[in-house]
C-alpha cells in the first residue's frame, strides 16, 4: 500500500482504488540513516508547492499577503468549498478525517456543500475525534484552509523531514493529525496567526502528526492583519507526537519557501519572534542531529534536503528573492556535498528580506507565473522549449524514455497545478484604493461608507453568513479581506477576488474533476487554455496574458468594494467564535443595487464565458501554423489575411533544418505561370533556370528554301497573335455572361430584392 500524499508531494505512480489511509511497506529500522530515508522519500515525492509571505509594512496597501500554489497532478481535486460558522453542543466531539488529495478528496457534509456525496459515492470515514469547541468560524478551504471570516489566512508547502509516522487506522499507524486538518482546526477556532501556530503545534504534540508520503514534514505561512508567521512541523521519533517551530516574518520583510524548511536558529527565549515545541532540543541531541553548541538550527537538524534534484527548491527561492529584492543579489547556485544537501549546508538564502519597494498584489501574481523569463534559466528558450517556446516540461521519471539521469529545471508556475491563491488580510482602505487605482477608477462603489452601508442591510439566514468580528481589534470584520483564486496553471489562469463573508464561492469554482471536460467549471476552462497554448505558446501566451490582465483589472474594481465593507458583532472568546452578526454582503434593500455576493457570482460567470470564448479565438487565429488578422479594407466582408508564422531561426538551426533535402530555387515548375516563357523572351531576359529547361525555338537547321526559313522565323510571332486573339474572345464571352446575369436579376427582382443592392451589382 502507498502512503497518503499531499498535492505538494505527490508520486508520479498511479495509485490504486484503496488509497484512503496508507503507509510504506518498508518500515524504518534503527540503522536506517536519514540519507537512506530520504532516498526512499524522494522516490515518491516528485511534485511540490511554492508559498510567499508579506508582512504588513512590506506591502503597498498595508495588508498582509500569504500565498500558495497547489502543484498537484492530473488527478487533483481543485474544488473550493465554504464551511459556515456554527455553534456546537457542550461536550460534543469533532471528527478528524484522513488526508486524501486526489479527486474526490472528501465525500460528506463536514466541509461544506461542495463535497456532498453523488449517487454511488461512499462517505469518507473519520479516523478519530477530539473535543469540539462551543462555536467555530466560517472559512474557505480546498485541501488546506485558505482564509476564515476574521482574516486568518494560510499558504502551504511540503518539506522533507527526518522522522516519519503513519495515520491512525493504517498498519502501525499512531498519529491522528495531518497538516490539512490542523489548518482547518486553526481556521475554525482562532483569529490571529500567533494563536494559530500555537494551537496547531499543541494539538499535534498531543495527538500526533503524520506527513504526506509517510515521512514528509510540512510548512505553513499564516497571516492575520497584523502579523505573518512561518510554521514548520514533522513527526517525532515516537510517531505519536510532533516537533514544531514557528518564526515571525519581521516587519517590512517578505519570505519565500519552496519545499524546504527555512527556519534556522531557534530562540524560544525570544517569544516575540519564535514559538515551538520545548522538547526539540532534547530530540536533536539524542539522535545526533545537533551537537548542543549554540542555538539549534532547525533546518540543519530536521530537514532531509531538496526533493527530486538539486535546485528543485533553491531555484524557486532564488527567483522570489531576486524579484522582490534584486538589490540583495543572491546567488542562483550553491555548493553541496550531495545533490540534495546544498540548501542545508550552504545556506545561500535568508529567512526573509526587505523588498526594494513595497509589494503589491501584482508582484505576487507575477512571481507565481514565473518560468524564470529573462534570466539564464529562462524555460521559454532552448531546444527543450520546442519550436514555440513552451516553458512546460512534462515529468520524465518512470516514463519509457527515462534514462535515470538528469532533470528539468523546476519552475514556479507549472502545467500540472490545480490552483493558486493569494490571501490578503487587513490594510488601509485609502492605501488599498491607491494601489488599485492604477488599474481601476477610484470613483467606485467603495466610496460609500461602511457605517452608512451597514444600516441598509437586512439580517441574513445564519447558515449563509460567515462574518465574525475579531475580538482584539476594533476596526471591523473580515469582510475587507480578499482571496485571489486562480484555477489550474497560474501562468494561464485568471485570478478572481472572493470573500469568505459572501458565503459559498461561485458554482464555477466548486466543480471540475479529472478526466472529463466540464464546460461549467473554471478549472477546466483554464486547464483547457493551458493545454491549447502548447500549439504555439510564444504567440498564444500574449493573447492569454492580455485576457488575464483585462479580467484581473475588472476584479480589482470588485475588490475595492470587498475592502470597503466592515461588519459588526460580538467578540469571540479565546479559541471560539462569536454568534454571527448581520451579513454585510447580503442584498441591499430594494433592487437599485445588487449585493456584493451577486457581483462576485456575475464576475465569475463572465470570466468563465470569456475564457471559453478565448479558446475558440485562439484556434481561429493560430490554426495550421498561421496567424489570421482582419484584412484592411474588407471589414464589411469580414475577410482575413493569414500569414505563415513558421519557426524561429534558432530552432530551425537546432533542428538541423539546413541539412534537410536540397531546396530547388528558380525552377520553372515552381515559378512559371501561363505565358511566363514568352514574356521572358519578349523582355530579352536570360534566366539560368530558363536556359536549362525552356523549350527550344523552332530550328532553322536543314531548311531547304528561304520561304521555309521565313515561316520558321515567324512561328513565335504567330503563336503570340493567336494567344492575344484567344484572350480577346474570352473577354467578350465574360461580358456576355455578365449581361445575361443582369437580365436574370432584373426579371426576378420580386423574388430577389437583393439584386438592387450595390454589393450585388458590384459582384455582377
Describe this structure in words.
By secondary structure, the protein is an alpha+beta fold. The strands form seven sheets. It has a seven-stranded antiparallel beta sheet with strand order 18-14-1-2-19-20-21. It is elongated. The N and C termini lie far apart (77 Å). The model is unreliable at 1-5, 10-46, 429-478, 566-594, 686-704 and 750-755 (pLDDT under 50).
Large-scale geometry: elongated
Beta-strand content estimate: 5-15%
| Strand arrangement in the largest pleated sheet | 18-14-1-2-19-20-21
- What integer is the average pLDDT? 80
State the end-to-end CA separation.
77 Å
Rg (C-alpha, Å): 34 Å
Report the biggest beta sheet as strand number plus sense, adding barrel if it closes: 7 strands, antiparallel
- Are there runs of 5+ residues with pLDDT below 50, and where? 1-5, 10-46, 429-478, 566-594, 686-704, 750-755
As a percent range, the share of helical residues equals 25-40%
Class computed from helices, strands and strand pairing = alpha+beta
How many runs of DSSP E, i.e. beta strands? Answer: 23
- Tally of separate helices: 19
